[in-house]
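Hey, can you fold this one?
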Amino acid sequence: MSSVAVIDYGMGNLHSIAKALQHASPDVDVRVVSDKQAILAADRVVFPGVGAIRDCMHALEATELVEVITQVAQTRPLLGVCLGMQAMLGHSEENGGTDCLNLIPGEVVHFAKDLQGAQGKKLKIPHMGWNKVQQVAHPLWQNIAQDSRFYFVHSYYAQPDESHRVAATTEYPDAFACALAKDNVFAVQFHPEKSQAVGLQLLQNFLHWDGQC
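Sure. Predicted structure:
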């Protein structure tokens, strides 16, 4: 039986993502773990997170998981979700500027405060709710229709240094990267565990992905 470790570093709704992973593939052993060796023993790893990036990085450093995540990113399929995605970049504007893991070079920036949508309507920050996702070809989009809607909750978004790392975009109101891919690493800004059937399909795809593009 294959296994997936959901990294527990004290941040994120781990029960929700673990339950969704188990529902997506009942034949997979889903483990919520903080132990370094247990994470490294899993076939696949999910790096979730909600909250502030400074708290996230402090928690990873305090639990000695920075090197573990870096090692996982080099050796097996790794899925970053929401704050977990943002932490994979090099630096974030949040909290006055925070250095991150730099698994995917780039910056995390705040949405402009004066965003306007159609007919000049002011858009709220955080970007919250369902939004269409425009995919770029990748195995994790298998059996998910183009422009499917996923659920978002965030005030910051990723700007990777290399445009070919973008695996999907969404608009608010301009297009921004909502999924990134690099080798065996895939990361999403939206919450697949809250995105109903399409979210479960993406998780199922990840749980059967060999890390190859």
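The first helix runs from residue 14 to 24. Let me know if you want another pass with a different chain boundary.
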